[in-house]
Amino acid sequence: MNKRFIYFDTETTGISIENDFIIELAAYDPALDKTFDELINPGSPIPAEATAIHHITDEMVQDKPDFKTVAKKFIEYCKGDVILIAHNNDRFDQPFLKREFEKNGLEFPDWAFLDSLKWARRYRPDLPRHTLQHLRETYGFPENNAHRALDDVVTLQRVFEAMIDDLSPDCVYKLLNQERAILTMPFGKYRGKPLALVPPDYIQWLSKNGALDKKENESLRKSFEKLELVKK
User: Fold this and answer.
1) Residue 55 is a catalytic residue
2) Which strand (E) or helix (H) includes residue 151?
3) pTM of the prediction?
């Protein structure tokens, strides 16, 4: 059975995965043409700086269900062989969602995830920025109510379908998750320099300071290992 995409987005009380809470969860399943949009009562006040971004107030969520209730409905909504897509999924939406499940004593479903930001950075390196709104402008889609979950989901679906053209969900998932060798230094004072020419003491410094242990630098570490510049 072929996988199908479900685009999703979260709005939260802040950016701390440990200390903040999801207050809106929205999704769109284009294959079934079904939307999901729920405000969530976090059980604590929403900081003013968060409200200034997404415009969700305490009054809007005071009579809304808690996360556990919404999570159960979301699990039902995501039935089947699905790939959940969010923009900046790997560093924000998925970790936030998983932590909320843990806080509420819920088992996290075995969903496949895909980060559209990661796809844009890999396959549209010609663009100076890869924010969702910049991609929307690049592909010529109309402006929406940015930073409200369902509006961002609709924009994401349009943008991502434009980026992948006619590729199937299975193909997209495979392309984004395949190992790619890094040939040049992607950051730091040696950015752009061939990996083989990066000074060994700098590589040792990166390793000693834990930079190569970070998830986002896993491909860099493996590329150094292939060149035998760091030990496996």
Assistant:
1) no
2) helix 149-164
3) 0.77
